[in-house]
């Protein structure tokens, strides 16, 4: 494992030295270990991906129906059915074509070149040629090409946020660590895919390719199978139900007819007609298009869905597991508190924008603002800005920083007091420095005051220090207080220490600052050369104050989490940050409540599967975790029956994003790996957009259920009409091509228009739906039987009227044909909502449905009155009076449902 061993032991085991490997040895090891690259899993062929779109039982039934129709000579029926099947397959294929590229993107994140020592000399080589035992050199800005053990470092800090979620660059060390040290805390190791944020160092490569941390992630992604969505399961279940019902009905009619003396071939043809009536040919295409329209709406709400069936998964989501850094927080370290001159100050402002105020926290005054000219505040912030290697600059009206985020926060705070980078460099040039190290935990700079000494900085040369509070305090003998330099007493040290603890308890990263005017004739060069020990300079310092900073939560997140709570959705924070920081942020956001648990990655490792499953529902915060921990959390929640959404932006989130029912990646800060592993991408990186997406997902599923229920009534009505007419009058009231036309136009435009119906009132105050409920419940079946029975009754009235009037069979069929279409158009308005009256919703609040109904009616009239279409559909013209009677009879479909809604009216929300 190498992190728990001394450097000499590591070099010995890897059979190398600080002089590096020889060229001959490197070639030999490259053959043994292979190239430093990630292996791709076998790609799914385009043909296989396309064919996978036709696996559902419903699609299979439609294909069989098409073959049977073709064998019976019903060529038009066969072609139309196959066309709708093909259309549904193409739409699904287009959506999923680019879904599985996570491994390729992981490969692209590795560094193209690496600086190594070979044969005792530095040289650059392709990173793919690195092998264990190579000595690599690292410096600021480098992407680390392989996992390595640090053997030398000079203030080396590594940004590991993409791998561990840690929001602050990690200070690296060379010392051996205890064997029990968790992976996230192994500060003497660096990992492939992370980057050097500051300083430089040297390491010995310990793992390459699939053996690196990135390789482990690639392996996880390659073995995780994305689970089927609730909608896919529901459609299959519905298909099995429809298929079974169809076979039973067909068998019943055929057997009954044969025993009644009808010719077997005629009974088989009637059975086929019933099958065509029962099977919703257009359902897959309509559902796909409905989802597609929902996706377009979600894009406008900053949510991009990569797989269509995943849209409605949001509506069933019970738990959202969210990464903290950059998702719940701004990913911008910001100074929030200052302790100076025995006063607690609050610093206002957002992000890197250098605009803000300094306010007294305990002041009773109307204007608690502290002036930028305050001596104590200016001295503190001047030291913070000068003892600093970061810069603040503006690019295209956006403030940006370069350098370490923690130091950048100090620069931004100083800028709020009027200190600008360029001006500081001119007025207070740095002559020398003692750099930060993990051993000293402090940094000191020596700056010349060209404008002459001030009242406090009474020298032309001043040393400024910043670092860990305990280190800075130990070096101070004086304190800047009430405008004077005074002796630092034990009571004051105790008071400052209590302030440090109080700030730390607020999840703030605390830094102390001090300064010291240097005597005339002091030579910075002697410090740089080591002639004057650093300890001699960094003593007898004057304490100037404390600065507390953190990565603040996004302003809109708290409200979003509250909305999720009202919707019955639990939010869980999963982060690589420390436990105290994570808990404080979670408590502030409303995630962590009384009696909720917080677990660290190490604590999670100590729990077996049974123990963890007992606790998982009570845990709201996971801190100091690694990718395998995130994956374990998601899988444990899924085992408990929860529908889990996982948000994230880093490479470390990819396995959990893929394993979750709904993986949600960040579009701006998210890595390509996380995006490819996700089901949905937030284009604005805003957690609040998840709330909009959840609402849209719920509404999409509600609309899908409504237009399927609407279609169910039509199919039930058709089956009852055909069955009753055959059994009662030995007449086929609709021929197969008419039934197919009814299915195509009633399952076409109206359902698509229903799919854009706005959300019902209070949709986000409902609990998540039960994924076991399915698309069709007893409620939909009851409504389908009721309205379907009503449509059948209307048709039988027309049938009796036509027979009594002596109308020929083609006219009888044309009247029933038109009646069913008109009745379904009235029925379409019923299913805008299964709860609210059309008059409550407003007739024109869904104009798309009005246009769809009018278009469908016109198409039906064309079929009835256009000669060449009359031939194709075996129709005859109807008189205006006959058309008026049919329309009036069909309107009872809407009137009766309005009466039912009125009688059943109650408060749902």
From TrEMBL:
SUPFAM superfamilies reported for this sequence: Calcium ATPase, transduction domain A, Calcium ATPase, transmembrane domain M, HAD-like, Metal cation-transporting ATPase, ATP-binding domain N
GO molecular function: ATP binding; ATP hydrolysis activity; metal ion binding; P-type calcium transporter activity; P-type ion transporter activity
UniProt keyword annotation of Coiled coil present: no
Domain of life from the UniProt record: Archaea
Gene Ontology CC annotations of this record: membrane; plasma membrane
Recorded topology in the membrane: Multi-pass membrane protein
Keyword Cell membrane appears in the UniProt entry: yes
GO BP: export from cell; monoatomic ion transmembrane transport
Pfam families tied to this protein: Cation_ATPase, Cation_ATPase_C, Cation_ATPase_N, E1-E2_ATPase
Subcellular location: Cell membrane
TM annotation in the entry: 49-72, 78-97, 241-262, 268-293, 707-729, 735-756, 781-803, 809-829, 849-871, 883-903
Stored SMART domains: Cation_ATPase_N
Residue ranges of domain Cation-transporting P-type ATPase N-terminal in the record: 1-74
Keywords noted in UniProt: ATP-binding, Cell membrane, Magnesium, Membrane, Metal-binding, Nucleotide-binding, Translocase, Transmembrane, Transmembrane helix
Protein name: Cation-transporting ATPase
Gene: pacL
């Amino acid at each position: 494992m190498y992190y728990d061993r001394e450097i000499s032991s590591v070099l010995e085991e890897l059979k190398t030295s600080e002089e590096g490997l020889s060229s001959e040895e490197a070639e030999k090891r490259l053959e043994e270990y292979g190239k430093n690259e990630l292996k791709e899993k076998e790609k799914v062929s385009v043909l296989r991906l396309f064919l996978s779109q036709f696996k559902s039982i419903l699609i299979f039934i439609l294909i069989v129906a098409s073959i049977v129709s073709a064998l019976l000579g019903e060529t038009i029926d066969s072609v139309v059915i196959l066309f709708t099947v093909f259309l549904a397959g193409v739409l699904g294929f287009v959506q999923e074509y680019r879904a599985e590229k996570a491994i390729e993107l992981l490969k692209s994140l590795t560094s193209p070149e690496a600086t190594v020592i070979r044969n005792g000399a530095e040289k650059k080589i392709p990173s793919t040629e690195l092998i264990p035992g190579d000595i690599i050199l690292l410096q600021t800005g480098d992407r680390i090409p392989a996992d390595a053990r640090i053997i030398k470092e000079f203030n080396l800090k590594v940004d590991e946020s993409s791998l561990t979620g840690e929001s602050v660059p990690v200070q690296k060390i060379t010392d051996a660590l205890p064997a029990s040290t968790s992976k996230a805390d192994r500060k003497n190791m660096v990992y492939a895919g992370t980057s050097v944020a500051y300083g430089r160092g040297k390491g010995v490569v310990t793992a390459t390719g699939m053996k690196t941390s990135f390789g482990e992630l690639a392996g996880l992604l390659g073995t995780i199978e994305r689970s089927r969505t609730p909608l896919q399961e529901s459609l299959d279940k519905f298909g099995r139900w429809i298929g079974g019902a169809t076979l039973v009905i067909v068998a019943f009619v055929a057997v009954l007819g044969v025993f009644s003396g009808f010719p077997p071939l005629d009974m088989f043809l009637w059975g086929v007609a019933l099958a065509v009536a029962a099977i919703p040919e257009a359902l897959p295409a309509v559902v796909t298009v409905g989802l597609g329209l929902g996706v377009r709406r979600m894009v406008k709400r900053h949510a991009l869905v990569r797989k269509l069936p995943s849209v409605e998964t949001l509506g069933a989501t019970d738990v959202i597991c969210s990464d903290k850094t950059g998702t719940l927080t701004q990913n911008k370290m910001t100074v929030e508190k200052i302790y100076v001159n025995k006063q607690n100050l609050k610093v206002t402002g957002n992000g890197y924008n250098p605009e803000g105020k300094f306010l007294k926290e305990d002041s009773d005054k109307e204007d608690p603002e502290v002036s930028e000219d305050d001596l104590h505040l200016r001295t503190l912030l001047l030291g913070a800005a000068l003892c600093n290697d970061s810069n603040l600059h503006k690019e295209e009206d956006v403030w940006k920083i370069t350098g370490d985020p923690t130091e950048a926060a100090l620069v931004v705070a100083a800028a709020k007091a009027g200190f600008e980078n360029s001006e500081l460099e001119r007025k207070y040039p740095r002559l020398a420095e003692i750099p930060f190290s993990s051993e000293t935990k402090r940094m000191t700079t020596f700056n010349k005051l060209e404008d002459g000494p001030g009242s406090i900085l009474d020298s032309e040369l001043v040393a400024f220090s910043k670092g860990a509070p305990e280190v800075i305090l130990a070096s101070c003998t004086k304190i800047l207080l009430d405008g004077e330099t005074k002796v630092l007493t034990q009571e004051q040290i105790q008071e400052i220490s209590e302030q440090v603890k109080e700030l730390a308890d607020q999840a703030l990263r605390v830094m102390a600052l001090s300064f010291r005017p240097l005597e005339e004739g002091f030579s910075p060069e002697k410090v740089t050369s080591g002639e004057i020990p650093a300890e001699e300079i960094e003593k007898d310092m004057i304490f100037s104050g404390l600065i507390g900073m953190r990565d603040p939560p996004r302003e809109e997140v708290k409200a979003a989490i509250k909305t999720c709570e009202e919707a019955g959705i639990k939010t869980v924070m999963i982060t690589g940050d420390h436990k105290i920081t994570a808990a404080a942020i979670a408590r502030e956001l409303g995630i962590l409540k009384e009696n909720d648990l917080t677990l660290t990655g190490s604590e999670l490792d100590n729990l077996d599967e049974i123990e963890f499953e007992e606790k998982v529902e009570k845990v709201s915060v996971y801190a100091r975790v690694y990718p395998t921990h995130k994956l374990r959390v998601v899988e444990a929640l899924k085992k408990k029956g929860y529908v889990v959404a996982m948000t994230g932006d880093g490479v470390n989130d990819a396995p959990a994003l893929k394993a979750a029912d709904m993986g949600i990646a960040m579009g701006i800060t998210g890595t390509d790996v996380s995006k490819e592993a996700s089901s949905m991408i937030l284009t604005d990186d805003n957690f609040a957009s998840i709330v909009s997406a959840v609402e849209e997902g719920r509404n999409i599923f509600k609309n899908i259920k409504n237009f399927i229920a609407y279609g169910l009534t039509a199919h039930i009505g058709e089956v009852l009409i055909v069955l009753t007419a055959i059994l009662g009058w030995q007449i086929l009231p609709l021929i197969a091509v008419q039934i197919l036309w009814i299915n195509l136009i009633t399952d076409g435009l109206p359902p698509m228009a229903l799919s854009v119906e706005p959300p019902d009132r209070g949709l986000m105050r409902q609990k998540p739906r039960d994924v076991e409920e399915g698309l069709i419940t007893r409620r939909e079946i009851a409504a389908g039987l009721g309205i379907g029975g009503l449509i059948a009754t209307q048709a039988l009235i027309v049938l009796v009227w036509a027979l009594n009037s002596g109308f020929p069979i083609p006219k009888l069929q044309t009247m029933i044909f038109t009646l069913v279409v008109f009745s379904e158009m009235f029925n379409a308005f019923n299913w805008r909502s299964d709860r609210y009256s059309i008059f409550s919703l407003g007739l024109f609040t869904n104009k798309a449905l009005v246009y769809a109904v009018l278009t469908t009616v016109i198409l039906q009239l064309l079929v009835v009155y256009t000669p060449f279409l009359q031939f194709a559909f075996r129709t005859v013209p109807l008189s205006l009076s006959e058309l008026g009677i049919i329309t009036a009879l069909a309107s009872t479909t809407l009137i009766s449902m309005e009466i039912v809604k009125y009688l059943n009216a109650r408060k749902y929300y």
